[in-house]
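Hi R.,

Here's the input for the glutamine complex you asked about:
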Amino acid sequence: MKYVLVTGGVVSGLGKGVTASSIGVVLKACGLRVTSVKIDPYLNTDAGTMSPFEHGEVFVLDDGGEVDLDLGNYERFLDIKLTRDNNITTGKIYQSVIDKERRGDYLGKTVQVVPHITDAIQEWIERVSMIPVDGKEDPVDVCVIELGGTIGDIESMPFIEALGQFSYRVGPGNFCLVHVSLVPVLNVVGEQKTKPTQHSVRGLRGLGLTPNILACRSTKPLDDNVKEKLSQFCHVPVANVITLYDVSNIWHIPLLLRDQKAHEAILRELNLMGVVGEPMLDEWTERAKICDTLLEPVRIAMVGKYTGLSDSYISVLKALLHASIYCRRKLVVEWVPSADLEDTTAMELPDAHETAWNALRGADGILVPGGFGDRGVLGKIIAAKYARENNIPFLGICLGMQIAVIEYARSVLGLKDANSTEFDPNTKNPCVIPMPEGSKTIMGGTMRLGSRRTYFQDGGCKSVKLYGNVGHVDERHRHRYEVNPDMITKLESAGLSFVGKDETGRRMEVLELPTHPYFIGAQFHPEFRSRPGRPSALFLGLIAASCGQLDGLLRDPPRHLHGMATANRGTQSAPPKPLFNSGFYLKRNGVHA
Ligand code: GLN
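And here is the predicted structure with glutamine in place:
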């Protein structure tokens, strides 16, 4: 096993995750199989209890792990499926060491940061890097380890110490350290400044780690003399100083690395030169180009809690982007803070109310993403009603689906106080209720999480066709509430159709409004499995419906979009290989499922 460690210096938010993922892409494009480990030096055991508005989205894995959003980057870029253990946090490491101590495994020794915590970190990395993540059975070739935070942070010290020991243990030729840093340009003189990078490399060295490659973020390519200076002061060959200058879209980053021969620098450090081929990045090149040339917009209103941090919905945005590129449209996301659609805002903040309504009315499609808590719920209900009544394509995800049910119960069934008990525990018409197996007291890791199967009930519905005429799909979940099974008959006789259910037939997974051009709700989060070359079915449906392409798509469903790429050579799209047979429907509980 070979290891590439990616650290960050100078400031946070340099795009270390995207850089590390792109390194993985280039290595994969050379023919190597790649996995990744993300280290988050915070104390939380996982990202599950962290606010997406502070820390960005909580990404959910197949195994139900609630992890840092960078794991989403890795899964999307490398087309792999990671496990919860691929995200290490300080909390997880300490918990494992404390558990061992309580079991008496340390045989009376004093348990300390060095060596016990540092050993636990190394063992964890070694163990997790061996887990195959690309559908094959044997371990992959290279593990990209991303250390979160910035060199010098107090919290990352045990990890740095552990990684220093680790690099020594695995030995030269098996370990390559890429340090991502910033080369700022002072506007007054327009000069590219190397000092911050010098300082951060000095910090890194002081902690026992030697960078092999410098990946410098800057606005423009680095001047040759700047590269030489960095090489001299940071003891890194000039050929190993790479510039990650600003590009028009992220698909360019692997290309930028390849063009500067970053793969050669890495392969040289890993003793793999001549063992693998040249990177084949045709699909990435084409996608980067297409993305730059798209002009005709597709406008999607995202109706949620908007706080200015677009990372809060990053997988949803990526899924919309993948689908838009497939439909050859330029994605324009209109952020609509749901509370601004409400009547009370019209009184208190008339401008905000008008802006929100203009954005909603100007949209080709409407998306209500997942969420928790009652802020802005009424606005989301208003948006669902607007989409339903005006035949505007609508996709409701998780909370968004529950909102669609509440709206239907209120407007069509006339149950004015219909609600989710999450928002009104005393409602007389609870159409969304807690799942019996959930916990209301322990918040971390107690939801219905991860990959669960949905069985389709109706072979003619839009979602079945979009998924490529399959009997069932596995998608990722993260919820505590569900549509009240006792209200299904009423809702269905009023025209709402629950076309996807779980294996018991009592839990609603997908709803559709057959009389509407595209009105779909999913209890799961399809965004987590969307890939650049294989957009998620329901997102593709939304975008296609929003730009007049849905009929064609339903006539000729993109079967090859489903399943997971298993080709290990390059990052070309998977050969058409449907995971599920088309045209068959499982019979369960007496219904076609
Ligand atoms: N709050 C809702 C639930 O727990 C929806 C969750 C979500 O959208 N992820 O069921």
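One thing worth noting: Residues 370-372, 398-399, 422, 478-481 surround glutamine (CB under 6 Å).

Cheers,
M.
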